[in-house]
Design brief:
The structure is a homodimer.
Chain A: E1 11-15, E2 19-20, E3 26-27, E4 30-37, E5 47-51, E6 78-79, E7 84-85, E8 90-94, E9 109-110, E10 115-116, H1 126-139, E11 145-151, H2 153-164, E12 169-175, H3 183-197, H4 215-229, H5 232-238, H6 257-272, H7 275-287, H8 299-302, E13 309-315, H9 323-335, E14 340-345, H10 359-370
Parallel strand pairs in A: 5-8, 5-11, 6-7, 11-12, 12-13, 13-14
Antiparallel strand pairs in A: 1-4, 2-3, 4-8, 9-10
């Protein structure tokens, strides 16, 4: 019977060695918060890294206490007997640099100034995250991961790992990802960013000093994000034109169920997430491009260094990163003669399907992982 | 050689008779601004009404002066020798009630208070627009239109005309429309509305008294709207990942061309459009539903009163109101035994294709109109 990893706790790692980012900016010392599930074996060959997406964090599986009503964000995927089997693998979840869940980010205090970094926190890229993740692996004595796994922006980090550190990744599981954003993807991100940037409570990113938060902007960004995470179909079947009110109210308060859902999601997010982190995450998405604007050639050229075996998974109704985008990755990997398994999962939920507990999808991952040596 | 209707001027009509809206609210007297092109024939049988979409207005064709750099918004469709031929037809464009281009709307002065209507302007529906348009027709002595034509929200007004006043519409041209919004459509509208409603400069809709405008909110609403008006394909081919800057700037100013385009569109709109009108227009879209939430049965039941002949046109890459939505209308009309011509135009531009000068599309309209008696 698949179970839970149980009660977990977060750990911190401090890094003193300065990290030079792709932008040229240098971070002098930083913390990363992470969690681990399962046991690292004696030759440290059974480690799996989970890379999170835009609003994710290091709390991937398990609960913080017996009373904890929630679980880690990918608890259905990771645990004893689950597709990522913690009886066999040692799994690491971490919060990316620039995040707002414990790793050093814009809301952290900059030791040099004694104030939150705010607008002075540098823009981080997917490459920078991989560097910082590699340092965490070094600290834990892991020279090579059995697998690295991620969905959406997490999948981009997996791709980057396979390019930056081919020797350190045996299996790369790239789920609901894309080899770069389209103009439409960038456009949605830019609207979200502008909602935050133009919120008077943003104060140029230094809202911490004003004892406020740009809730309006974050709320709009999250509402908009949610539209792109769901398929038109699932929105139609879950909400359709169902109303919460008895007939039309002829005003601008919530009337349709979909409005109530979006506003609730927006409000919840605006209370808990850091606006500067949101900006950074969307920018990392926009910037991700293994071809570096074609300077290293085509995507096939960019993926040439990769030596991992790949599992690439897409979802039929994902219109944010459509199956076609995954196929671009698969084609490039095949051009390089890489070993790739590709599956397009029929799923009605859209982009967020990668977080769902779907037997076929999870069966695919479980089956793939069954042939991964620990 | 197809030409222009030339120099045009706007006209005003004042209506003293109170208009009771669907909401129950009553407007005691209002103005409508309109333009006409071509000559009304002696039996007043050659009139065509153009219904505008969200941000449209009464200036449909021609120029205001010889120096006028712009033309009416559907100038490519309407004029001597054009698909809607003003040598044959008398064409009327009007600004809808609640608009911000001359017809009575939230930015107009309420004669009772001597102040702009602002938040007290009632929510208007597609049905209400048809009522007010019918009164304008009465004033001009037009008992029956040869055709009523509109794209997007304009197409919804055409549908409503065919239901509300079957005897007054001989031909109904419904372009890039839908028989009602999906949850996703409503969701986008709700994000746009929330951007406006939560802008501190909105002042609950009474910003006129504060000598300000909710520019931030309107700008975001328009940026978002533009994403849904364009196809992913055309955004990709026009903008792709092209940058305006030399390499990444690692900040949040404009870097990609698509960002520049969207912000420009947003800024331009925010300076000229009224925020309250934007709210009203999106609400009219949300509310439009000929079935009245199924209370009058199916769409086929709702369209039973219609006696017009129909031309329904959709565009392949329109993901806002996809061809499937037009086919719902066509199916319902066929269920009613109506005479319907349907065309799905292959066009890369998305929803906004209905405004484009496309020979195949215009040929279809011209061909259909050639058999419409003046």
């Amino acid at each position: 019977m698949p179970g839970s990893v149980g009660i977990v706790c977060s750990q911190f790692a401090h890094f003193d060695e300065p990290l030079t980012l792709r932008s040229g900016a240098v971070i002098h010392g930083y913390d990363l918060v992470y969690e681990t599930y399962g046991q690292l074996n004696s030759d440290k060959s059974n480690a799996i890294l989970i890379c999170h997406a835009l609003s994710g964090n290091h709390h991937v599986a398990g609960k913080y206490s017996a009373e904890d009503k929630g679980s880690g964000w990918w608890d259905n995927m990771i645990g004893p007997g689950k597709p990522i089997d913690t009886d066999k693998f040692f799994v690491i979840g971490m919060n990316n640099l620039g995040g707002c869940h414990g790793s050093t980010g814009p809301s952290s205090v900059n030791p040099v100034t004694g104030k939150p970094w705010g607008s002075s926190f540098p823009v981080v890229t997917v490459e920078d995250w991989v560097e910082s993740q590699a340092r965490l692996a070094d600290l834990l004595g892991i020279t090579q991961f059995a697998a690295i796994l991620g969905g959406s922006l997490g999948g981009m980090q997996v791709l980057q790992w396979s390019i930056s550190y081919p020797d350190r990744v045996r299996h790369a599981l790239v789920i609901a990802a894309a080899p770069g954003l389209t103009a439409q993807n960038i456009a949605f991100n830019d609207v979200a960013r502008n909602a935050i940037l133009t919120d008077p409570d943003f104060h140029g990113g230094d809202f911490y000093a004003h004892q406020t938060r740009p809730r309006r902007g974050l709320r709009l960004a999250r509402m908009l994000g949610h539209i792109t995470y769901l398929s038109d179909d699932v929105m139609g079947s879950k909400f359709g034109r169902i109303m919460r009110t008895e007939g039309f109210q002829y005003g601008f308060d919530v009337e349709f169920e979909i409005e109530s859902y979006l506003r609730y999601q927006g409000d919840k997010f605006a209370e808990s997430f850091d606006a500067n982190t949101y900006l950074l995450m969307t920018k990392a998405l926009d910037y991700f491009d293994p071809t570096h604007h074609g300077r290293v050639g085509t995507l096939s050229d960019a993926l040439k260094p990769a030596t991992a075996e790949f599992l690439v998974i897409s979802f039929t109704t994902d219109w944010r990163f459509s199956p076609g985008r995954s196929k671009e990755i698969v084609k490039a990997l095949l051009d390089c003669g890489r070993d790739v398994t590709y599956a397009e999962v029929t799923h009605g939920h859209g982009h967020d399907a990668f977080l769902m507990d779907d037997p076929y999808y999870h069966g695919l991952v479980a089956n793939y992982m069954s042939r991964v040596a620990p």
